[in-house]
Amino acid sequence: MGQRSFSPWTFTPGISDASIYPNDNFNLATSNKHICIIPQVESVKGIENVEEIAAVEGVAALMFGPGDYMIDAGLQLKLSGEPHPTFLAAMGRLIGAAKTAKLPLFGAAQTPDMIPMLVQQGYAAIAVAFDVWGLAGLVADALKKGRDITKDLAGTATP
C-alpha cells in the first residue's frame, strides 16, 4: 500500500469514469486495491531459484522473460526454429514451479506463432502486442500501404 502509481494511461477520460487528476484519490485507492506481484524470471539464477520465488507469500503469478533469459544463458536470440534445449529446460522448470505453487503463468508471444505453444503449456495470460513493437508495426504497415498506393497511382496524376 502506498502513495504511488498515478497512471494517466490507466484511467482515460471518455473510456473510464474516473478522474486522472493527482488531487483525486481514485487512482491511488484503486491501485492499492489491485496490487498484483508477478515476478518476471529472466536469468539463469532466477530459474535456479524459481521454486523459492514461486513460494513467496503474495506472489500472484509467474512470468518468463525469454529474451533476457537467452542473453543471460549465452544462447542465440531467435524467434523461429526449434528452441535450444537449455531454453526449453528453463521454461519447463518455471512451468513446474508455477504448477507446484498453484500459480498462473503469464508470458509474451514474441510472434503470433508462439501462441499455441503457450496455450498448450497452460499460460493464463499472453501478451501479444508491445508498445514500441506495436507502434513500429503500425507505422511500418502505414508506410508500406502508402508506398503501394503511390506505385499503383504512378502516371495517373493530371497536371
Strand order of the largest sheet: 1-2-3-4
**Uncertain segments of ≥5 residues (pLDDT<50)?**
none
Terminal CA distance reads: 67 Å
What is the total number of structural domains? 2
CA gyration radius, whole angstroms: 21 Å
Q: What structural class results from the helix and strand content?
A: alpha/beta
How many DSSP E strands? 4
Instruction: Determine and state the CATH class of the largest domain.
Output: Alpha Beta
Count of discrete alpha- or pi-helical segments spanning 4 or more residues: 7
Largest sheet: 4 strands, parallel
Strand content: 5-15%
Fourth-tier CATH superfamily name of the largest domain:
Phosphoenolpyruvate-binding domains
Averaging pLDDT over every residue, what do you get?
82
Shape, please? extended
Give the helices and strands as they follow along the chain.
HEHHEHHEHEH
Helicity range of the residues?
40-55%
User: Any guess at the CATH architecture of the largest domain?
Assistant: Alpha-Beta Barrel
Q: What name is given to the CATH topology of the largest domain?
A: TIM Barrel
